[in-house]
Amino acid sequence: MNPSEKKHFTFDQIPDLTGKVAIVTGGNAGIVLREDENIKSETGNQDVEFLHLNLKSLKSVKECAENFLARNLPLHILIKNAGVTSNTFSLTEDGIQEEFGVNHVGHFLLTKLLLPKIKTSQPARIVNVSSRAHRYVESIIEFEKLNDPNAQDSMQRYALSKLANILFTNELNKRYLEEEQIYATSLHPGVVDTKLVRRNDISLSETLVSSSISTEDGAITTLYCATSPEIEEKNFRVRYFYPFGIEGELSSFAEDDDLAKKFWEFTENLI
């Protein structure tokens, strides 16, 4: 993605969000950096708060949801931005392969726990930050080998978790959202200049790394999905977007309804 390319959506197109409540995961690094006081001083918004969430722990996910729900606030926007990858195979506290556990399972549980509140707050948005890397899943998914450290390399583990983000979006809509004013979308933010890319744990080509976009530009497609009136006006549901608010192409696996159902059922058994 050429950073100078004309953008379909820009920051100045974000509508007035006064009164809207949003949760954004992954605010400690990357596209969304958690600097509560800086955000307050730069925006003048004193309502920015930090919620502790460790996606490596399903107990922490439940506690985060409980802490938010105890505040009795509406929830208009849920952005699941957090993501990890590593050259080293590891497991979450619950014994789930880390990329799949953090990038998918933790967010799956968080969404399910917050969904009743989102329904009472509609119109609302659920935004799943996936990746073009989902296209690197090219063979039949062997769920029973998920925790086998020799079954996949780091890119394959990351790609599978990003495919799961998209399939979750599709199945969530089918099960719960078709009759609601809740718009669930997924997206590829671009190759963004974050620690994940600079560390290059997923073996990106030097050309790809050198053409990465800024964290500000990397946030635009997420903000398009979360705030643009166009999403509701055009009834964009289970759509997948590229920078900067352009519909992207999915892999055949990402459009497989049967696979989406299998992922959902497999994940439910993990939580």
Automatic annotation (TrEMBL):
Domain of life: Eukaryota
InterPro entries listed in its UniProt record: NAD(P)-bd_dom_sf (IPR036291), SDR_fam (IPR002347)
GO MF entry, a single one: oxidoreductase activity
The UniProt record lists the keyword Oxidoreductase: yes
Keywords of this entry: NADP, Oxidoreductase
Family: Belongs to the short-chain dehydrogenases/reductases (SDR) family.
Identification of the protein by name: NADP-binding protein
Organism taxonomic ancestry: Eukaryota, Fungi, Fungi incertae sedis, Mucoromycota, Glomeromycotina
